[in-house]
Amino acid sequence: QICLSLVKLLFYLAHSPLGSIVLLDFQPRQFVMVDGNLKVTDMDDASTEELSCKEDNDCTLDFPTKSFPLKCSVAGKCEGINEKKNLFNAYRYFFTYLLPHSAPSALRPFLTDILNATGDLRYGINETLKAFEKVLHLYKSGLYLQKRPLHLKDYTSLKGFRVVEGEDYKCWPSYSHLGCLLSVHSAEEAARICNSQSQCRSFIITQQRTWTGRSLASFRSSPTDLIPDANAVVYIKRSTSSG
């Protein structure tokens, strides 16, 4: 969410009415999340000036660990230097820390491609935004889920009950520090996750939703602590529900 919001912000800066805007003091502390969107807190160090040049050799974009040769336009400006500077800083300070983690395994190759392409500046901001939106579409739609043997058949569903809330086994990346609370596209995906965790014996799809509209599922090690709830369904592994 943070990376996608940042890319949308940089897309706007690259195509702003004032021209391409560069953030000269690009640090994580310069940003804040407001209602799920990343905002810049300080525009004092923003600039629309692009480096002047006479030849391509005048247009090297230097960072502590990498340098990128750019083209000198016929107008005597280094082409896209503001956009590329913003994008590589996004890679340095955000993408490298946030993208490799917590995504479903089927989506990680797409995120790795984004990481590598922005790290080498092979993608501009337009291509980067399209790549992020493709991953988001796959994630929200569930199209990333590969056709595999059905896991939900291993579970008995109990309608009208839910599991008593409380501490249980932990998992990563959980939305709750008290137990294992993960986002899922469907009960089938939740069943696959439960089957992959040795402690899991049951799960419930909660009424909570993430920013992408996906449901949160609570995974439990014990299916025995049930209380009535007309709007809930508990899924219990058949091997533990036979009694």
Automatic annotation (TrEMBL):
Transmembrane segments: none annotated. GO terms for biological process: skeletal system development. GO terms for molecular function: non-membrane spanning protein tyrosine kinase activity. The keyword Metal-binding does not apply. One of its GO terms (cellular component) is extracellular region. Residues 1-19 form the signal peptide. Residues 2-116 form the FAM69 protein-kinase domain. Pfam families: PIP49_C. Keywords: Kinase, Signal, Transferase. InterPro entries: FAM69_kinase_dom, PKDCC. The keyword Transferase applies. This is PKDCC kinase. It comes from Ardeotis kori. The gene is Pkdcc_1.
